[in-house]
Design goal:
Blueprint (H helix, E strand, L loop, with lengths): L2 H11 L5 H25 L1 H17 L2 H20 L4 H22 L11 H9 L5
């Protein structure tokens, strides 16, 4: 694993030690990711494609496996949103409820979310959830 990626994951894990918080994150992080991807593509497909590529650069810098996990998550998110015909109001509700779950998890953990320290942790969360693939 890329040392930069290992460092990011280690730093992210510091505020994700409580088993309940971990379980909440393993549910809510993918839901947040999916809802953002779905809303972006529902709003404007070409703009969403540009953003997906821009974020891919961040993941590419962390290594091929990180990039592949990101691409797979985008594709799975799009597939789920299309198969379930999820509209933006539904995706927004998923987004809000999943964030509420995350904050409840951090209340249980007794630690503030990592992104309060560095916004890039918002991009690390999905990799942390699927870190066993890395």
């Amino acid at each position: 694993m890329n040392t930069a990626l290992a460092d990011w994951l280690e730093r992210y894990a510091v505020s994700h030690q409580n088993p309940t918080n971990k379980r909440i994150h393993h549910i809510c992080v993918p839901l947040i990711f999916m809802s953002i991807v779905g809303m972006l593509y529902n709003f404007h497909e070409q703009a969403a494609n540009v953003l997906v590529v821009i974020f891919a650069v961040f993941y590419m810098r962390l290594g091929t496996k990180a990039l592949l996990v990101y691409v797979a998550l985008v594709m799975i998110s799009l597939l789920v949103c299309q198969l379930l015909a999820l509209s933006n109001p539904i995706l927004l509700l998923i987004f809000i409820l999943a964030w509420a779950g995350q904050f409840i998890g951090h209340k249980i953990e007794g630690a503030k979310p990592s992104f309060f320290e560095d916004l890039q942790f918002l991009l690390i969360g999905p990799l942390w959830v699927f870190s066993r693939l890395l």
